[in-house]
Amino acid sequence: MRVAIAGAGAVGRSIAGELLENGHEILLIDKAPTAISVERVPLAEWLLADACEITSLDEAALQRCNVVIAATGDDKVNLVVSLLAKTEYGVPRVVARVNNPKNEWLFNESWGVDVAVSTPRLMSALVEEAVSVGDLVRLLRFSHGDANLVELTLPPEAALAGTRVGDVAWPEDTSLVTIIRGTRVLTPNKEDVLEAGDELLFVAAQSREEQLEDLLSMRREDAAG
């Protein structure tokens, strides 16, 4: 998979390193000469250019990219890069970094963004996830379909503990995508049995989050009553 990353700062280089380890082809773009540090990510391609300019993106052959990541420290730049990648080059997947949470509402499909990643929101979500059992935590927002990646740790007294995945009447517009059980990551199937302490990751419509939380946090005595 070919991935272009606009912004070769610490965030962009870190993303590039992870993706290179997973076997992907990476192009790092930055307009600041001081940011071009080939020795830090030697396996990546590097381009000294302004990612907000069409001529630069033509040089980067953005139309050949499967994913574009707008990872600069400037939200305006990330929005422009996202819009150009989607509308001018038809990039299938555009991921954008949100630096200021006040700007998060802009990072949607109108600006070409498929996935918006807000570092402050993600950090607060991870704090909530670390201390919350039985509470739904929103980890990531997807622009298309108004869907979110959400997590809930199944509490010990949960009514669904001991229930097969296939026997649960999940709310509409929700999908259980992963079960994290201790150090194991499970791809759920209908025969898997839910256990107390499981971290459950869902892609869910925002309108269904409350219904999903109610279902997962229901206690055995409440279900029996």
From TrEMBL:
Q: Which UniProt keywords apply?
A: Ion transport, NAD, Potassium, Potassium transport, Transport
Q: Enumerate the Pfam families for this protein.
A: TrkA_C (PF02080), TrkA_N (PF02254)
Where does the RCK C-terminal domain lie? Answer: 137-218
Q: Which residues form the RCK N-terminal domain?
A: 1-117
- What InterPro entries does the annotation carry? K_uptake_TrkA, NAD(P)-bd_dom_sf, RCK_C, RCK_C_sf, RCK_N, Trk_Ktr_HKT_K-transport
Top-level taxon in the UniProt lineage: Bacteria
> Key word Ion transport present in the record?
yes
User: Per the UniProt record, which residue ranges are transmembrane?
Assistant: none
Q: Does the keyword Transmembrane helix apply?
A: no
* Name this polypeptide is given: Trk system potassium uptake protein TrkA
Q: Which organism is it from?
A: Streptomyces bugieae
